[in-house]
Amino acid sequence: MLENFNGNGQTAVNVNGVLQQHNEPDKAFDLRKLLDKVLSHWYWFFLCIVAGIALSWLYLRYATPDYKVNAKILIQDDQKGGDSPEKDVLQQLQIFNSKSNVDNEMEIIKSRSLMERTVKDLQLNVSYWLEGRLKTAEQFRKLPFAVQWSNLIDSLPDAEYVVRPVSDNKVHISAEGVVDKDISWNDTLHLPEGIMKVVRQSNNPLIKENYIVRVVSVDKAVTVYRNKLAVNIPNKQVSTIDLTMTSTIPEKGEIILNELINAYMQLSVDAKNRIADSTIAFVDNRLALVSRELSGVEKDIQTFKQNNQLADLGEQAKLLIASTGDFSRQLTEQQVKLSVVESLEKYINDEANNKRIVPSSLVLEDPNFVSIIGKYNGLELERERLLMSNTASNPVVRNIDEQLVSLRGDLKSNLTSFKTGIQTSIAQLQQRSGAIDKKIQQVPAKERVFLDYSRQQAVKQELYLFLLKKREESAISKSSNLAGARIIDLAKSEAFPYMPKRALIYLLGMILGVILPSVGLYLRDVLSRRVVNKLDITENTPAPILAEVGHTDAKAAVIISKDSVTPVAEQFRALRTNLQFVLREPKEKVILLTSSMSGEGKTFIATNLAAVLSLSGKKVLLMEMDLRKPKVSEKLGLDNRTGFSTWAIGKTPLNELVRPSGINDNCWLISSGPIPPNPAELLLTESTKELFTHLRAHFDYIVIDAPPVGLVTDAQLLGTFADATLYLVRQGYTFKQQLQISKELFIFHKMPKMNLIVNDVKAGQGYGYSYSYGYGYGYNSNTKKGLSKRIKVMFGK
């Protein structure tokens, strides 16, 4: 045997001088074959798609939807307006780029402390769930009761309590291993988590169902809701911030988001009020001190007048005061300034005030000093905002700390310079005033003492009035403080759920309905042990396929007659035609049929092959040579008491061995006879060889129904007398592994001119053929099969 490859995926095999071709497995993707397989199992795809859509509907029916809640606020960002063109160019080039005020505010909104404040205000660490038959759904506010907790421990473990309203007066509370009893409304329970109080909500109807109250720690609730919150800046050219929160209950999401915005805005107002509070506290302290000093001076004047019996010193000192009035007024102004400067200097030098706001309303007329205080307070507020979402080791915070240290040094330097100037002015005024004092030495000592008292009273009174004025200004400033943000859109939920997406779920259900049968068909092909399609044959054996015979429901042993026009009859006629290309020589007339195992249809094929050959006018002999398990005589209803086995032992003469088969006048039969104890030895006798020589001379075709070659050696012994071998493979019955037998027989030429016949091919079962011949009839015998039979064929059972 010689093999040649023709380059087109086919192998040419020279067997006994006859060049036969068989196709190698085609590894390329065949779209048409795939479509045929899908269409042949369309009902599975249809059922799975319908089931996928039904499952999608069921999932959407009981799935918990997630809604998106959106809000928008506007931040007062000075960095996004009124800048010079040069600064805009630098920002576009991202030179000296730093986070804008909007970026900082966004970090504050995302901060943990702000969310913790919201969780505590709304008690979001306590959730309520209503038990249903298929799922437990979360409830919010519209409940017949509310649970109030007090003295909750910090490291609170997760806990669940089942609350069931019993009546208008009673409620049942239970938790495994903790509590299980009825209590009255508004009663308190001491539980491991804290003190629990169940309050009746009279505005909601009493529903006697099981409610689950879940309690978690504040830290865990903060983490959960921070993960649900998304904060982003839609455009770097604007100063708006978009807030989005996902929630299974739209109303709950709206309330949480609005509360978060209110908490943020209140935090902004509190930061601004801290400056005013710092100024008011400083002024109050100074007022208390100055008030005591002023009261002391006034008391000294009263004592002085009482001790010296003075009534009106105005006229007495009129001329003196007129002379020294201008100097006294100037000296008083300078002394007031000096007192303010000294107070500020003491305030700044105090180590406890290093991280506090410097009172801005007490600054003097020096514009440079006013500018430094404004920058200093601005940096202090910026530092506090950054610390809400960053640590002190953050590079931006450390940079601000360095700027604060530098500005504090500038403040001290300016105060020192300003104080020195004031002291110089006071010294000069005192020097000039001293010159005038020499001129009034004749003034009585009492009047001079009284004048000193009056001067001290004027200074203290001026300072007292100055402080009162600044306190009122700070109070007015505090009352007019507003948040640094404005609400553009209040929290509002979207009309439709964000998750799950209905269209996507239905699409996934349909895709799943396509994938499941596809995977099933693939696994059937991969895992099936039996021959299902043509590829299973071509991948396991190089033997060519001569013909394919379809499935038939006919019970008769012979389905071929002169007038038969069924698809199976036409297939047998096609087999008869194909045999002409195998048996090319007139002397080649013996056809042997075998298979891997019993039950693959050898008797059916042999009987009908003999019938179709005899219909062509040829004299055909059908030999029942399966001496171990004969079936031909039984199928034809003939007596099998005599046959080959009785002839081989000399009990039946040759003229009685061959008898009519009853199929038609041109078809004869040699039955097997009684089952012998040594079938193989009978086939090896010389008389068997002589029998075949005699039969070749009297018949045009000899069809041998041999036993399975995979079980016994009888078929190979009979192969020495045959001119061609037809090896049967039955769809859904023959094991793939058994095709290795045919491969070995074909490659090593153990059987003459071996070709395959595929038997019992079912249309629409994945073999790859649909039998229709265009004569007004088609092969549809399997379309009415039950589902159970389809499943058995599908999985090769």
Automatic annotation (TrEMBL):
<keyword id="KW-0418">Kinase</keyword>
<feature type="transmembrane region" description="Helical">
    <location>
        <begin position="503"/>
        <end position="523"/>
    </location>
</feature>
<dbReference type="InterPro" id="IPR003856">
    <property type="entry name" value="LPS_length_determ_N"/>
</dbReference>
<feature type="transmembrane region" description="Helical">
    <location>
        <begin position="42"/>
        <end position="60"/>
    </location>
</feature>
<keyword id="KW-0067">ATP-binding</keyword>
<keyword id="KW-0829">Tyrosine-protein kinase</keyword>
<dbReference type="Pfam" id="PF13807">
    <property type="entry name" value="GNVR"/>
</dbReference>
<comment type="similarity">
    <text>Belongs to the CpsD/CapB family.</text>
</comment>
<dbReference type="InterPro" id="IPR005702">
    <property type="entry name" value="Wzc-like_C"/>
</dbReference>
<dbReference type="Pfam" id="PF02706">
    <property type="entry name" value="Wzz"/>
</dbReference>
<comment type="similarity">
    <text>Belongs to the etk/wzc family.</text>
</comment>
<dbReference type="InterPro" id="IPR032807">
    <property type="entry name" value="GNVR"/>
</dbReference>
<dbReference type="InterPro" id="IPR027417">
    <property type="entry name" value="P-loop_NTPase"/>
</dbReference>
<dbReference type="InterPro" id="IPR025669">
    <property type="entry name" value="AAA_dom"/>
</dbReference>
<feature type="domain" description="Tyrosine-protein kinase G-rich">
    <location>
        <begin position="449"/>
        <end position="524"/>
    </location>
</feature>
<dbReference type="Pfam" id="PF13614">
    <property type="entry name" value="AAA_31"/>
</dbReference>
<feature type="domain" description="AAA">
    <location>
        <begin position="589"/>
        <end position="717"/>
    </location>
</feature>
<feature type="domain" description="Polysaccharide chain length determinant N-terminal">
    <location>
        <begin position="29"/>
        <end position="122"/>
    </location>
</feature>
<dbReference type="GO" id="GO:0004715">
    <property type="term" value="F:non-membrane spanning protein tyrosine kinase activity"/>
</dbReference>
<dbReference type="InterPro" id="IPR050445">
    <property type="entry name" value="Bact_polysacc_biosynth/exp"/>
</dbReference>
<keyword id="KW-1003">Cell membrane</keyword>
<keyword id="KW-0808">Transferase</keyword>
<keyword id="KW-0997">Cell inner membrane</keyword>
<keyword id="KW-0812">Transmembrane</keyword>
<keyword id="KW-0472">Membrane</keyword>
<protein>
    <recommendedName>
        <fullName>non-specific protein-tyrosine kinase</fullName>
        <ecNumber>2.7.10.2</ecNumber>
    </recommendedName>
</protein>
<keyword id="KW-0547">Nucleotide-binding</keyword>
<keyword id="KW-1133">Transmembrane helix</keyword>
